[in-house]
Automatic annotation (TrEMBL):
Gene3D superfamilies: 2.60.200.40, Probable inorganic polyphosphate/atp-NAD kinase, domain 1. This is Diacylglycerol kinase-related protein. It comes from Actinokineospora spheciospongiae. One of its GO terms (molecular function) is ATP-dependent diacylglycerol kinase activity. Belongs to the diacylglycerol/lipid kinase family. PROSITE patterns: DAGK. Pfam families: DAGK_cat, YegS_C. Transmembrane segments: none annotated. SMART domains: DAGKc.
Length: 296
């Protein structure tokens, strides 16, 4: 299979520079199965997509992305739109898509798995979520408390790393106000005062939090986790249980399943998907079965 045409998309800054450091090793491994390896290295979404399109126009059998969940999100857009199989080599801080799909967390082990799959032509398909008229997402779309934390983190310049999230959580807890949420699905309409909502194609977000613990990216349905009105104290008590998935047993939590979801209501919530900002509600999303072909 050494004649395969493969593009390696590298986002060097991912994982605080981890992607850039491991990129030569990953490229070397891929050359074992590809006589035409195109390395796409870019620090902006626009340049990355332009280089991917150029590689596709020259003929492409697979795209391998090296980076974090943000990098994978951009690769998903390209692969879903152009029907190119995707391989993922994790080198970010969260790596939630890789975790959900049962792929190796170590980048060298992950590229070895991708190379082995390319050798034998192993492929599988997973579902994707699609925002009406817009982006695809592979993992989780969220709005409410958790997306407010993301909004605050993106405005902060200090500190760096996990402490920035910790401070943002404290600040958002102080500002916590449940808002009116309308969840309209193919199974009915739910209106309530809510704290947050997560629409999961896969289980994880936020670096390993199983917010939708039973989500299966091959069943053609989203799993929804809706957290109703809770006090600051209740939310603080609930946060540790989210790490184990036990939060779904809390009386304020409702779990739904649906193929199509509309989120709206009288609120100022912003939606994030795969950790990337989409914009304010309302938002309509649909689960598209088998929309992405994976290598491995």
């Amino acid at each position: 299979m050494a004649g395969l045409r493969v593009a390696l998309a590298v986002h060097p800054a991912s994982g605080h520079g981890a992607a850039g450091r491991v990129a030569p090793v990953v490229a070397e491994r891929l050359r074992a199965v590809s006589s035409r390896l195109t390395v796409v290295e870019a620090d902006t979404v626009e340049r990355s997509r332009a280089l991917m399109v150029r590689a596709r126009d020259e003929g492409l059998d697979a795209l391998v992305v090296l980076g974090g969940d943000g990098s994978a999100h951009q690769a998903v857009q390209f692969c879903a739109e152009h029907g190119v199989p995707l391989g993922v080599v994790p080198a970010g801080t969260g790596n939630d898509l890789v975790r959900a799909l049962g792929m190796p967390a170590d980048p060298v082990a992950a590229v070895e798995a991708v190379v082995a799959a390319l050798r034998v032509g192993a492929r599988r398909r997973i579902d994707l979520g699609r925002v009406a008229g817009g982006a695809w997402f592979a993992s989780v779309l969220c709005a409410g408390f958790d997306s407010a934390v993301n909004e605050r983190v993106n405005r902060m310049r200090w500190p760096h790393g996990r402490r920035r999230y910790d401070l943002a959580i404290v600040a958002e807890l102080a500002a916590l106000r449940p808002s009116r949420l309308v969840v309209d699905t193919d199974g009915g309409v739910l209106e309530l005062a809510a704290t947050m909502v997560a629409v999961g194609n896969t289980a994880y977000y936020g670096g390993g939090i199983p917010v939708c613990p039973e989500a299966d990216p091959t069943d053609g349905l989203f799993d929804l986790t809706v957290v109703g009105e809770v006090s600051r104290v209740d939310l603080v008590r609930m946060l540790p249980t989210i790490r184990s998935g036990a939060h779904v047993g809390h009386p304020a939590v409702r779990v739904l399943r649906a193929r199509r979801v509309s989120l709206g209501g009288d609120n100022e919530w912003v939606a994030y998907a795969d950790g990337e900002r989409l914009g304010p509600l309302p938002v309509v999303v649909e689960c598209v079965p088998g929309a992405l072909e994976l290598v491995g």
